[in-house]
Each structure stands twice: as structure tokens, then as C-alpha cells.
Specification:
The protein is α/β, with parallel strands linked by helices and about 220 residues long. The model is unreliable at about 1-5 (pLDDT under 50). About 30% of the residues lie in helices and about 20% in strands. Helix 1 runs parallel beside helix 7, helix 2 (about 50-55) runs parallel beside helix 3 (about 75-80) and helix 6 packs parallel to helix 7 (about 200-220). The protein has a single domain (about 10-220), classed as Alpha-Beta Barrel (TIM Barrel), CATH 3.20.20.70.
Length: about 220
């Protein structure tokens, strides 16, 4: 797969969307993608029909991402049937062959912890359209609000990198300066309650990303 470099515009995914108004607030501020958590144990869980109902209210050119944790084939198929254009995000211990069998663009997540070789962990997933790094938690898969040690992520990752884990308006600029990621992914950092987004926090987060991008553009000029 040809590696696409990120340029100087960081893409933004607002994850854990459960309400139309939250999706609309994210899109109005310039989000590139909305994430819907289909893992039943998540506090932000939605059913595929709910994902599709929200997605139908969004304008064109915004990606809808269906987020799974160790799903069955039937669960993935149900999401695709509900919203055929969805990008798939696998956030558990799914095997590469499973991720690739659905003929849809897909991302693979690895949760970062000390002692884990990320290059080795991602190696089987070269067919993914992006690799997502997130904070490790022994019980939760995403949405922890925890930031991990960024120094654990090598610069040698070959696929577009999506950075998640404890991001907020206060630290996303530093993250972009450090990583120059293809995209950033936020959920807890733009919430007022689990599954309920705060429009002001979304606006502040996206403004901080764009400010960091402007700084990167000036540096490259």
C-alpha cells in the first residue's frame, strides 16, 4: 500500500457520537469524521440503526466510522448494512485477515504501553488505511481520557497515524507539534458527560488543531 503523508492539515475525528446535535456541532466546526462506538460495554454504545439515523442527518464529505472491539462477523455486517459507506475501526485484538474481509476501508488500533513493540504490533496490519495509537487500559478500549507516554511511539510507523488518548484543547497542539499525525481522535476531551458532547469544547479543540497546523505551515514556509 502506498503511504500517504499527512501534509500540514491534521484530520479530526470526534468519537463517541450518540446524538444528532453532537454530530452536527462537530461538523459545523470542521470535523472530518464522526465515530460511533458499537461495542456494547461502552458508555457511548450505539446500535447500528442509531449510527445510521445520525449519519443520515450529516452533510456530504464527512466520514462515518464504525468502531468495534473484538466483534463477530455478524456484528460488522450489521453495521455495514445499516451504513454501507462506513469506515471500520477495529479497537480490540482482531486479526488482520478478519479486519480485511469486509471490503471496506479500515483502521487498526494498538493500545500503547511500556514494553510493547509498536512496529511489531502493527506489522500484520499493513493493509489498514491508517494505524491508531491509544492509551492502554486493562478493562477499557478507548474513551479512557488517559494520555499515554508519547515517547513510546516510534517515528518509523509506515502507515498514516491517528493519535488518540487523553487529547484535549489544552494538549492537542503539543501533540501535533510532536507527532505531525495524519489525524487526531478525541472523545472524552470534548464531553460534558459520557456520550454527551460539549459544543464549546469541540470548538476549542478544533481551533487548537487548526492553530497548530498554521504553526506547522509557517515552519515549512
Amino acid at each position: 500500500m502506498r503511504t500517504v503523508r499527512p501534509g500540514i492539515r491534521t484530520r479530526i475525528k470526534i468519537c463517541g457520537i450518540t446524538r444528532v446535535e453532537d454530530g452536527a456541532a462537530a461538523v459545523e466546526q470542521g470535523a472530518d469524521a464522526l465515530g460511533f462506538v458499537l461495542w456494547k460495554k461502552s458508555a457511548r454504545h450505539v446500535e447500528p440503526a442509531r449510527m445510521a439515523a445520525i449519519a443520515r442527518e450529516m452533510p456530504s464529505f464527512v466520514s462515518m466510522v464504525a468502531v468495534f472491539v473484538n466483534p463477530t462477523q455478524e456484528e460488522v455486517q450489521a453495521a455495514i448494512e445499516a451504513w454501507p459507506a462506513a469506515t471500520l475501526q477495529f479497537h480490540g485484538e482482531e486479526q488482520a485477515a478478519f479486519c480485511a474481509r469486509f471490503a471496506r476501508p479500515w483502521m487498526k488500533t494498538v493500545r500503547v504501553r511500556a514494553g510493547l513493540d509498536l512496529v511489531e504490533s502493527f506489522a500484520p496490519y499493513r493493509a489498514a488505511s491508517a494505524w491508531l495509537v491509544d492509551a492502554f487500559h486493562d478493562q477499557l478500549y478507548g474513551g479512557t481520557g488517559r494520555r499515554f507516554d508519547w515517547s513510546l511511539v516510534p517515528r518509523s510507523l509506515s502507515q498514516p497515524m491517528v493519535l488518540s488518548g487523553g487529547l484535549s484543547a489544552e494538549n492537542v497542539g503539543e501533540a501535533i507539534e510532536h507527532f505531525h499525525p495524519y489525524a487526531v481522535d478525541v472523545s472524552t476531551g470534548v464531553e460534558r458527560d459520557k456520550g454527551v458532547k460539549d459544543p464549546a469544547k469541540i470548538a476549542d479543540f478544533i481551533a487548537a488543531v487548526r492553530e497548530a497546523d498554521r504553526g506547522a505551515s509557517i515552519e515549512q514556509a
